[in-house]
Write a structure and sequence with these properties.
Blueprint lengths: L13 H7 L9 E7 L6 E3 L7 E3 L1 H13 L4 E6 L17 H12 L4 E6 L13 E2 L2 E2 L1 H18 L3 E4 L6 H11 L6 E8 L6 H7 L24 H13 L3 E5 L5 H10 L4 E5 L1 H12 L5 H15 L3 E4 L2 H8 L1
Parallel strand pairs: 1-3, 1-4, 1-12, 4-5, 5-8, 8-9, 9-10, 10-11, 11-12
Antiparallel strand pairs: 2-3, 6-7
The structure holds ligand PBG.
The site of ligand PBG has 12 residues, from helix 6.
């Protein structure tokens, strides 16, 4: 049969497929989220996230060294806190866990980019990302605390703060506060299009930060995180964060929102991050455990899809493992 076009010619051998491959993963694409806990010598497995650990600061420093050795350029820190109150007071102490963790990493592994989560959920007794006033997550009152948290991280030496709370105007408020405190070189990685997703479940287990089922406390985060049905609204959120001074904008989760990543890529010329969240990690692991998928193949297929969709960087619990294999 005479056929002018035979696309299969470009798939014949691995060498040819390598030549025409459009999307290449690199260890430099990844950011490893890490969980920090009090103590020394602690490397506590997280039940809901097999292969991930709560690390005391000394172990965290070792992990950061190991990550730089395999070419992962950045970590994103989350603090585990037993101290929880209505206002999230433990979030912005100068000698708090995350603040000490930043300083220790910067002292021992200065080359790694340290990012920190800025949101109150690990520190509030109700598990919400902001403060509660009359049964509602109060926007401006929350920002006042988030700003203090961000500045305390900057004082400890953080490279980039990552507000994940979804309060309106927090990026601008944090930018102004950082600049006023002399931290104009500290960047903002904004969780701009963060959806109210079920895929955060395993993460909330890691930090014991699920919203509490208490009277007068909202059970979910739908009044501040976005409706999974919306994409135009995501573009608006991203545009606002860029206007307010975000250096990098993020779409989260990644897999069920690949179209959002692509639309953001087409509409904006700032770096775009995507968060391959805990539930997405868990789905791959659970299916692999049942031998329904091959773990390594699934991991790379997922990561490649996120990059192909348009993400410049990927926060992923697979960061270290994928970087080791990519070499
Ligand atoms: C907290 C925060 C969450 C995640 C990152 N920062 C949970 C939430 O919003 O409830 C989820 C990360 C993951 O699931 O891997 N503001």
């Amino acid at each position: 049969m005479e056929l002018t076009h035979r696309p299969r010619r470009l798939r014949r051998t691995e060498a040819i497929r390598t030549l025409v491959r459009e999307t290449l993963l690199h260890p430099g694409d990844f950011i490893q989220p890490l969980f920090v806990i009090d103590g020394t010598g602690v490397r506590e497995p997280i039940d809901s996230m097999p292969g991930q650990f709560r690390l005391s600061i000394d172990e965290l420093v070792k992990e950061c060294k190991a990550l730089t050795e395999v070419g992962v350029p950045a970590v994103n820190l989350f603090g585990y806190s037993d101290e929880k109150d209505a206002q999230g007071l433990a979030s912005y102490r100068a000698d708090g866990l995350i603040q000490c963790a930043i300083a220790e990493i910067k002292a021992h592994v200065p080359d790694i980019c340290v990012q920190t989560d800025v949101a109150l959920d690990p520190y509030t007794d109700h598990g919400h990302d902001g403060v509660l006033v009359d049964g509602e997550i109060a926007n401006d009152e929350s920002i006042a605390v988030l700003v203090r948290m961000a500045v305390s991280h900057a004082e400890a030496g953080v490279d980039q703060v990552a507000p994940s709370d979804m309060m309106d105007g927090r990026v601008g408020a944090i930018r102004v506060a950082l600049d006023d405190s002399g931290f104009d070189d500290v960047g903002i990685l904004a969780y701009s299009a963060k959806y109210a997703s079920c895929f955060y479940g395993p993460f909330r287990g890691a930090l014991k930060s699920a919203p509490r089922e208490l009277e007068n406390v909202p059970k979910d985060k739908k009044t501040y995180q976005m409706d999974p049905a919306n994409v135009e609204e995501a573009l608006k959120e991203i545009a606002l964060d860029i206007q307010e001074g975000a250096d990098i904008v993020m779409v989260k989760p990644a897999l069920a929102y690949l179209d959002v990543i692509t639309r953001a890529r087409q509409a904006f010329d700032v770096p775009i991050a995507a968060y391959n969240v805990s539930g997405e990690y868990g789905m791959v692991l659970a299916a692999a455990e049942k031998s329904w998928v091959d773990k390594e193949t699934a991991m790379f297929e997922v990561l490649t899809s996120i990059k192909r969709a348009g993400a410049d960087m990927i926060l992923t619990y697979f960061a270290k493992e994928a970087a080791e294999i990519l070499g």
